[in-house]
Amino acid sequence: MSYAKAGWAQFDSTPPLGLPMGGRGPRFSPGAEVLDPLVAQAVVIEDQKGYRTVWISIDMIGMTWHATSRLRCELTAMTGIPFEAIVVNFSHTHSGPMSGFEGYATTERKPKALEAYENSLLSRTVKMVLKAIENMQPVAVRVHRGTSEIGINRRRRNADGSMGMGPNPEGYINRDLWVMDLAAEDGRCVLFNYGCHPVMVYSFAWDGLSADFPGVCRNRLVEILGPNTHAQFIQGLAGNIRPRRLAGSDTFRKATPQDVVATGAQLADDVLSALASGGENLDLDLNCVSGFALAPRDRDAILPRAHWEALAEREAELERNLGAYWVERFAAGIPPARFLPWAVGLIRLAEEHTVAWLGNEVVAEWLPLLRTHLNDANLIAWGYCQDGRNYMPTDALIPEGGYEVDRANHYTKAGPGPFQIGINAVAKQTFLELAQRL
Question: Which pLDDT score is estimated for 35?
Fold first, then answer.
């Protein structure tokens, strides 16, 4: 018999028009229309010991650690929930606001309106969690495992041998679809986790605000399961995964509104299939631990100063600001970072039911590595937690190069050099130490 309790809440987090859009690097591209609302959601779960964890999901590209740690500190002070038991996950929609501005390598100042929106969002998130706690009630906890084929690996070798961005049917993807069903007397919370980039809407509506396919999926689940359903998406290891529906023989085509609906509907159907599969009842025995893996940077691979000086003279806003930032940084005598403190953690739900959460844009190949390191074939992994900046490749991907290894690092203040071989060993050691604490 389960003695678990849970409560959930959400609010419309759609920003005002005119704010710069996320998913466009450090370039200003103001939002001009709302295609569908963005939401922030939270669920608070309590086991029979009284231990609580809170999982927050926000429709945006991803904030910085500084912003989410401030939020988590305030929530700990307000609720008594341990800091490391509070997880902030971002859907990573590329059609939301440019959050995490502080992490971009740009000489531009953060717009006051964007700062005001984020402050309001964080304040409303605190209130949302408090509301979820007010709503707590006994629940039956059931975990279901299914699969989904909506994603495809996007790292494809070009004809010249370089690593480009195109559909790679042979590339690794994690087909696992994890679903937790919290059933109360007068409501139901369905949490679902899958890893795939929400990058469909901005190909046909560059300045349109949208939750992309995760929003379609959530709405379909509520429509089918009933209005008292809280459907909450938790983004997985999507760093190199894009929607399969857009995959051609060698390139990704532009999406249409129908593609977004079809992909969201397919994911919803996969969630419903998982729910119908039986699943497993859980007697929760919660515990949460977290820490940092110091991911090493390869400073010897940084492009010469002349490269950044040339970029600073370009007409294109993105390249000009990028070059100017690194020219100023080098001139100031501040060396590039030697390490990236990579926020990671473990959540024990019950015996043989563990979730690994990881900050940043984690490539899909990390899941089999973590399952091996922790000797847990059933391990579930969430990406984009606590911090949405920086792509995190594995050792095997680093020699291949490509966007997730090389160019993406130029856009972040933690760059501009790529990661160094040895990141696998650092992650393994950190997670093994966390597992001992768990």
Answer: 98
CA dihedral 77, 141, 59, 199 (to 10 degrees): 150
Q: Are residues 250 and 389 in the same domain?
A: no
Q: Are residues 174 and 117 in the same domain?
A: yes
The pLDDT of residue 108 is 85
| Structure token pair of residue 321 | 């600001």
Dist CA 420 CA 295 (whole Å): 8
Domain count, the chain: 2
* pLDDT given for residue 2 in this prediction: 61
Question: Whole domain around residue 327: which residue ranges?
Answer: 287-437
Contact between residue 156 and residue 288 where contact means Cβ atoms under 8 Å apart: no
Question: 426 and 354 share a domain?
Answer: yes
From the list 163, 319, 312, the residue with the least C-alpha distance to 240 is 163
The DSSP output letter for 372 is H
Q: Give me the residues of the chain with pLDDT under 50, please.
A: 1
Residue 355's pLDDT is 98
Can you tell me the distance from the alpha carbon of 211 to that of 218, in angstroms, rounded to the nearest whole number? 10
- d(C-alpha 247, C-alpha 252), whole Å: 5
Q: What is the 8-class DSSP label of residue 94?
A: T
Per-residue pLDDT reduced to its tens digit, 304-325? 999 999 999 998 888 898 899 9
Two structure tokens written together for 379? 């391990």
- Is 425 found in the same domain as 276? no
Give the per-residue pLDDT at 26: 76
Q: What pLDDT is attached to residue 169?
A: 96
Residues 108 and 128 in one domain: yes
Q: Do 184 and 49 share a structural domain?
A: yes
Q: Are residues 271 and 296 in the same domain?
A: no
Q: Which of 262, 281, 300 is the last residue of a domain?
A: 281
Query: Are residues 141 and 28 part of one domain?
Result: yes
